Amino acid sequence: MYQELIELLYLANRTHPDISFVMAYLSQFNHNPEKRHYNLAKRVLKYLMGSKDKKLFYEKEFGNLNASSDASWGNAENGKSFSGGVILLGNSLILWKRRQQKSVKFINM
Q1: If phi over 0 gives left and psi between -120 and 50 gives alpha, with beta otherwise, what is residue 63?
Q2: Highest taxon of the source (predicted)?
Q3: How far is it between the farthest Cα atoms of the chain?
Q4: Which residues touch 31 (CB under 8 Å, ≥6 apart)?
Q5: Distance (Å, whole) CA 97 – CA 23
Q6: How far is residue 103's CA from residue 7's CA, in Å, rounded to a whole number?
């Protein structure tokens, strides 16, 4: 049941960049989800149902092309970092990407 819910949320994620981070988090538990992961996935679905009238908006005059990125410093579950970025044309979102890093990175200072 968890995997089916995650598949539905992944489809929604294509047009809802606001759930990208939580989807990266929840996808870690596809093979062994706990009740708390299922409950969080249901909360995301409830959020989407409550925000179904919100839409991405594209202005007629775009302005400048801007890009931003960010990363976490690992999570408590497995130590792997998340990274992501967005590209905006003016104030309009045209591309976003998020991913969990494949390995744990250590920085020696």
Answers
A1: left
A2: Eukaryota
A3: 47
A4: none
A5: 12
A6: 24
Contacts of 27 (CB under 8 A, 6+ apart): 6, 10, 100
Q: Which of 100, 45, 44, 35 is nearest to 72 (CA)?
A: 100
Helix-helix angle 2-13:35-50, to 10 degrees: 40
Give CA–CA dist 76/95, Å, rounded.
28
CA 37, CA 6: separation in Å to the nearest integer? 10
Residue 101, token pair as written in the block:
């890093």
pLDDT (tens place) for every residue of the chain, 109 residues total: 899 999 999 899 888 888 888 888 898 898 999 999 999 999 999 999 998 887 777 777 778 899 998 877 766 566 777 788 889 888 888 888 877 777 766 666 6
What is 64-75 written as a DSSP string? -EEEEEEE-S--
- Residue 36 three-state SS: helix
Three-state DSSP at 38 gives: helix
